Amino acid sequence: MNLIFCSAAGNSAAWLAALARAFPGASVHACSHLPDEAAQAQLPQGIDYALLWKPPADLLRQLGSVKAIFNLGAGIDTLAASQALPAGVPVVRIEDAGMSEQMSEYVVHAVLHQYRELDAYAESQRAGVWCPRARQDKRQFGVGILGVGVLGGAVAAALRPFGFPLSGWSRTRKIVPGVDSYAGRVELDAFLARCRVLVCLLPLTRETRGLLDRRALSQLPIGAHVVNVARGALIVDDDLLALLDQGRLGGATLDVFHDEPLPAAHPFWHHSRISITPHVSAATLVEESVAQIAGKIARLEAGLPITGIVDRERDC
Ligand code: GLV
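Above: inputs. Below: predicted complex with glyoxylic acid.
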């Protein structure tokens, strides 16, 4: 079997070692993620599968006859946005493979941080003031998950034991135990109105780009907190900043940005109500992902169906 691997993530050696272990009889051809080198590169004949993260267009363009492209992450927006993605080749995303656990840790921490008002206590400490606060009414502290796919469902399950009123919004209705379900644009405002903390876990598509603009963010309760662990472009940055500065929103915990790394001059960096992490909420874990991909390739080779195939009409 012939595989090609190309990743812009900077940990290619670990991937190649794991691929060599998982596919002992296969030839794995590593391609450069640098556009100039990709333009010069000669691909071997007869590639069966491509494993890619943010590949250059010149490489993608040559993959019209592979059996499937495996996207080395959950979000397929970069691949989907490329004009060079060959039509008709199935694209398969990573499903969980250790991401649910990481995402749940991150989001539960962010929600509890808000509910227990730890920023206010940090401020009291800086001022040297002993200032206990009244417990917030949990029944009024709704947590909303925008996007209840694999990761959103796992986050909901991780939040459930804490007893917050949970809601979930998705394009089409999803039934998740313990979560009030909202679906479609017509129910978006009613969903947002319930979110004391809004957790963004939507994929970035034509439909969701800029979904959280001033109008939508203004539907959140006054003082609401926004957690974005999906893609930066779901949010209109200037609208978020304006609503924070007006005191309409309470704060934001942001792991993802329009441009990454977040440019040094971006106002998010030094905003007192914004916490930033560098796109670390849920990393693609190499061993777990290679095991998942190997399992799927074995099924494809046996003519069996697999999960995680991207619906290009809907998700791109
Ligand atoms: C990370 O952002 C991913 O899409 O897996």
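Residues 274 and 301 are 48 Å apart (CA to CA).
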